[in-house]
Amino acid sequence: MWELRHRGGGGPGPGGEAASPPREGEAAGGDHETESTSDKETDIDDRYGDLDSRTDSDIPEIPPSLDRTPEILKKALSGLSSRWKNWWIRGILTLTMISLFFLIIYMGSFMLMLLVLSIQVKCFHEIITIGYRVYHSYDLPWFRTLSWYFLLCVNYFFYGETVADYFATFVQREEQLQFLIRYHRFISFALYLAGFCMFVLSLVKKHYRLQFYMFAWTHVTLLITVTQSHLVIQNLFEGMIWFLVPISSVICNDITAYIFGFFFGRTPLIKLSPKKTWEGFIGGFFSTVIFGFIAAYVLSKYQYFVCPVEYRSDVNSFVTECEPSELFRLQSYSLPPFLKAVLRRETVSMYPFQIHSIALSTFASLIGPFGGFFASGFKRAFKIKDFANTIPGHGGIMDRFDCQYLMATFVHVYITSFIRGPNPSKVLQQLLVLQPEQQLNIYKTLKTHLIEKGILQPTLKV
Amino acid sequence: MTELRQRVAREPEAPPEDKESESEAKVDGETASDSESRVEAVSLPPSADDTPEVLNRALSSLSSRWKNWWVRGILTLAMIAFFFIIIYLGPMVLMMIVMCVQIKCFHEIITIGYNVYHSYDLPWFRTLSWYFLLCVNYFFYGETVTDYFFTLVQREEPLRILSKYHRFISFTLYLTGFCMFVLSLVKKHYRLQFYMFGWTHVTLLIVVTQSHLVIHNLFEGMIWFIVPISCVICNDIMAYMFGFFFGRTPLIKLSPKKTWEGFIGGFFATVVFGLLLSYVMSGYRCFVCPVEYNNDTNSFTVDCEPSGLFRLQEYNIPGVIQSIIGWKTVRMYPFQIHSIALSTFASLIGPFGGFFASGFKRAFKIKDFANTIPGHGGIMDRFDCQYLMATFVNVYIASFIRGPNPSKLVQQFLTLRPDQQLHIFNTLKSHLTDKGMLTAATEDK
């Protein structure tokens, strides 16, 4: 038991070392009391499990991680005072991230998918690492392997469900892939079960509670990060604009709320984040709506952003070419009377998508910040300043993406409820999996329906 | 913080058993004032005995050990009889029972969480947990109702709107709960609140999704509900009996009472039981037919032409068994072969659900999940092996028995845009033509 703590103290994470001395001091007092319990095996679980029932103030802080600012920046800014230096680092990194974003958009949807995947893996890693540090469970048998294994299983399941739909034509050709698709759920379930059984077999006598905590921690993290990232990819396939406008709205809201708060901020917004103010919140709201409106107008012109991403088997790559749908065709709207007086115009031509962008921006400004408050509360609960130290001046990847949590789900739900019904590629894929007789029946039903609706001409010969 | 713990110690509803576990968990790092309440808690009497008075009097003469046996035995028979009655009453009642079991399991696990974290008095938290349960149930029931009651839903205007924007409405409800959680974060209790939030979500993931998969299986045909559950129950009982009579080699350190002899004996007994049970049940339409909602009579009907799975077929017995039994062929239902797969899963992997629950109980130092059923513990104790079974049956049906639901596909098709419909229609047409199913002759029919 002492060994475990010493090993945890000498563990690879830089944050682990400073954490152990305060814990050892407290635990020394507790040790005498544990001797009195008859069940020695409860020692470790009690000690770490007791974290649960203490108030937050009893928990020692995990010290900040190393400073990862590159040497170049440090030399360039060595002349400035510390406060301005911090500002400059943040500013430079912000611009770097935004340019990286633009670069990847230019490189295409496939690169974007890879980017989303790597962000997801990094976020998962950050949150799991926090869990390890909180529970000093770095040396639990099997646990690191199992966490990554579960991440792999869930990703395999989701990729098979979503992405495979888009490759229906490609998949039809290959025999092995067809087998994998047909029994996809069964294979994913079997993989997950193997992980579950390994977890049960790996339960070690003195560490039950810790292991259950890490199991639950892993699952909640998977729920948050992996499902969100797959919804992002599904939005992406709907059209890159559905990926770009929400994400930029959230980023814009962050930046403009900060700027408004800096210049006009007076009334605090919520106790969780003392730096946020009502002025910043409301100013950010209005600027984000305007920004979303303009960004939607600019992006709706280009087929590259507007068309659903398709995989063409002949060129073996993703293409975004299509006839833009109605959402992305200019229409004339008659202005309501009070706006008519202000703008002195009768009608205005805009894209219908811009109206949807107002809804997206409103969500990004009003509800998105709750994701940020959730992350702030989480950081306070576990006494960490940042999720990690990946980006100098900003913290970890999770720090940048905390407001995006709910946005991806909202956009996905919005698309399925208001823009289109079920995913057509999925319907097609499921049709192709049916028995031939069922397919024929459905074919006849569909044909009757289409002829009734006038979409299909009855005299059309094969 | 001491206030919080003392309030919990005086809480009349919390079962005394859990207080003992609390006191053990509180041992470390306590101040002098805390140790007083701890001493009080330790000296509390054992939990209230829920056994009905009737049983107590009837068995008062027997010794304590036999009395425990008899109580368990009587309750087991009572539960099995109850199960049969519910099956007789039909699918609607069965659905409601599944719903009640789910709510009770959720309540049991959440109560354990409260006791572990002493969070009974956290602001809002009880409300929020039940609210999230409601949201997730609303979401799942809406999806089920939309699938199976399509015509009913299309008729009624309010239902149609609810169904069309169902995902949006569910998401809004969930978001409200999420925002309430964020607003309810209180300065000194952040960690506790996050723990309870995580605990609630993991519980929802386990309990609610499983129960909805059970209901999906039920709609496929009551036999898909009854055979898996009975196999798990049979495996429990058979493994116990084999272990009792022949048990020698311990199986796993987590549950010292389980033995390899019980495990293997239970496996074979369950497979045989599954074969027999499916043979008996496949003969009756009410078990075999998918549950459908009849628009005219406004009720559930189970009437259909049994599918190929439930029609007797001749199978050639492999040479090995032929010499033993002396028959050349045997008539069985194809479903019985599937039942072998189901029973195998129930006996080999089902117990892992039980080990998981045992590990959970040891981790949080509780003897039983609750004290609902005398002699057996809580509802969760009875259903712990069923965790994985419902998911397995659902995945099994989706992968091997039927593909996607054709009528559901047609419904989805009808909601698409015309250009998408045309695109799919043309792709289907070319696919069928390639396969040779569609020629110019059949086209004109």
How does this structure look, described?
The complex is a heterodimer of chains A (462) and B (445). By secondary structure, chain A is mainly α. Chain A is built from 21 helices and six strands. In chain A, β3 (310-312) and β4 form a beta hairpin. Chain A starts with a helix and ends in a 9-residue tail after the last helix. Chain B is mainly alpha-helical and 445 residues long. Chain B contains 22 helices and six strands. In chain B, β1 and β2 (255-259) form a beta hairpin. Chains A and B meet through α2, α3, α10, α11 and α17 of A and α10, α11, α17, α19 and α20 of B.
Radius of gyration of chain A: 27 Å
Low-confidence stretches of chain B: 1-48
The percent range for strand residues of chain B is under 5%
Question: How would you state the average pLDDT of chain A, rounded?
Answer: 75
* Largest sheet properties of chain B: 2 strands, antiparallel
Oligomer: heterodimer
Shape of chain B: globular
**Count of helical segments of chain B?**
22
Strand order of the largest sheet of chain B: 1-2
SSE-based structural type of chain A = mainly alpha
Helix proportion range of chain A: 55-70%
Helix/strand class of chain B: mainly alpha
Distance between the termini of chain A: 77 Å
What is the H-and-E element order of chain B? HHHHHHHHHHHHEEHHEEEHEHHHHHHH
Q: Considering DSSP H and I runs of 4 or more, what fraction of the residues of chain B is helical?
A: over 70%
- Main pleated-sheet profile of chain A: 2 strands, antiparallel
Which chains share the greatest interface? Answer: A-B, 95 and 88 residues
Low-confidence stretches of chain A: 1-49, 51-60
Number of helices, where a helix is a run of at least 4 consecutive DSSP H or I residues of chain A: 21
**Order of strands, widest sheet of chain A:** 1-2
EC number (chain B): 2.7.7.41
Pfam family, one (chain B): CTP_transf_1
Enzyme class (chain B): transferase
Pathway (chain B): Phospholipid metabolism; CDP-diacylglycerol biosynthesis; CDP-diacylglycerol from sn-glycerol 3-phosphate: step 3/3; Lipid metabolism
